Amino acid sequence: MAKTISPITLFLFLLLSSLSLTLATDYPLSTKSRWIVNNKGQRVKLACTNWPSHLKPVVAEGLSSQPIDYISKKIKDMGFNCVRLTWPLELMINDTLAFNVTVKQSFERYGLDHELQGIYAHNPSIVNIPLINVFQAVVYSLGRHDLMVILDNHKTVPGWCCSNDDPDAFFNDPKFNPDLWMLGLKKMATIFLNVNNVVGMSLRNELRGYNHTAKDWYKYMQKGAEAVHTSNPNVLVILSGLSFDADLSFLKDRPVSLSFKKKLVLELHWYAFTDGTGQWKSHNVNDFCSQMFAKERRTGGFVLEQGFPLFLSEFGTDQRGGDFEGNRYMSCMLAWAAEKDMDWAVWALTGVYYFREGKRGVVEAYGMLDANWHNVHNSTYLRRLSVIQPPHKGPGIRRNHHKKIFHPLTGLCLVRKSPCHDSELTLGPCTKDEPWSYSHGGTLEIKGGHKSCLEGETAVGKSVKLGKRCTKVKQISATKMHLSFETDEGSLVCLDVDSDNNVIANSCKCLTGDVSCEPASQWFKIF
Ligand SMILES: *[C@@H]1O[C@H](CO)[C@@H](O)[C@H](O)[C@H]1NC(C)=O
Ligand SMILES: *[C@@H]1O[C@H](CO)[C@@H](O)[C@H](O)[C@H]1NC(C)=O
Ligand SMILES: *[C@@H]1O[C@H](CO)[C@@H](O)[C@H](O)[C@H]1NC(C)=O
Ligand SMILES: *[C@@H]1O[C@H](CO)[C@@H](O)[C@H](O)[C@H]1NC(C)=O
Between 2.50.20.10, 3.10.129.10, 2.60.40.10, 2.80.10.50, what CATH number should domain 405-526 receive? Predict the structure, then answer.
């Protein structure tokens, strides 16, 4: 039966539809097998940076250096679509801290006078507002810049995280009362109930410590998940594993049991030091990387196969280039993240911290921004991350049968120097859609009119080019990232890269055994 539409209904309808047009993503998000999807069922890939707001001052870092909106814009400009925003539980369970301490008071009590002057200069409107309102202001600013937010309960007491000795490492530790934690989660979930860009809550960062058990993990994490979902059914509920979130293996035999569906995401952390101090230094890198692929699958990657999204919510390394183990790990980790097409959040956005572990102005070596929160810290590093920012597969992603041949060391991909079918090969932006195809043990071929595939007509140290006489290209090493073929002269070579990023043939190196050898210039991940 037809019903007349009142002018006010019409007005509301128009208002709502105009609002929805301005949103880049159709919230809320949910899950569909291992993918996170929007309300149209299309994949949304989380490509986030962590923005710490859980240290002693309980103010998102950087606000003494740049205006909030400037930082939000910078995040967007770097190609991220989301922020994992950390918060200490006390912000929700201690009303004095949340409502009665202003930014000014919080900075003054830690002697951060210089930093306070910075707040006056760059964010004068927040000087005299309570800490909870600054937290909200940051979330709203991110929303204005079309950035999604994952609210991450990082710890209980404000301060740097994490060690086994912390009094808030695991449930029922002196500073980790599960009831207060659930209360805090509910409050946080409720505060952001109608804030569209808050798409997920990460319930507790890096559970760990002497008292951690899988039994208690299920007991409390399931309750916490229900509490969040009841208070805010829109958000994804994101659960961190044991042992500093390096271990979800216990889920293999006993999945999480919840009353609701399509909202559960698991999270995993992976740093070089996760693999054991000194390990990346004392092994052959190619062998060790392949062992780490297997380890990551065992400790977390398997959840993708079980049909749950896995959010690699912390990873990263020293961006100043001097971290020997971190550099070795980084190419391996990137290859893995690219192949799995993971959702992720890099640690961290920070240029410099106001006050960390008793020291003022500590630079974040892993940070995406420089110490002024102005420039990109290391553009090569950002380029390497940019390859894993866009989604490659999943629901609603235009099916693309072309392969990418990713060179994780540089963050570039194998491309033709010119569009001719006998072109030489070089490295170029991975956004260039080269129609590569590859069949195992087969040919590496550019699809198109003329037959154009990797040819054997080259020699050690010489350029590699395309042609009609295909040679067989094999993934020969444990990581499957060495691409080897036989030259017309009969020598076995691997694809390599010279100092000008030309792709050349070289003797295959560091395949196994040798500990001092660096294979990454010969690593190509086909995905
Ligand atoms: C906040 O401060 C006011 C005035 O100093 C005080 O009366 C009130 O009890 C405080 N509230 C909390 C929650 O600490
Ligand atoms: C609550 O926060 C205030 C302000 O930081 C602090 O003085 C007080 O000790 C906190 N209370 C508890 C129970 O931690
Ligand atoms: C571990 O649990 C025991 C007993 O509940 C408690 O006394 C202790 O403080 C906990 N350890 C840590 C490091 O929190
Ligand atoms: C930037 O990072 C790359 C590796 O990602 C490293 O080789 C280089 O030394 C770094 N540059 C600077 C200026 O720190």
Answer: 2.80.10.50
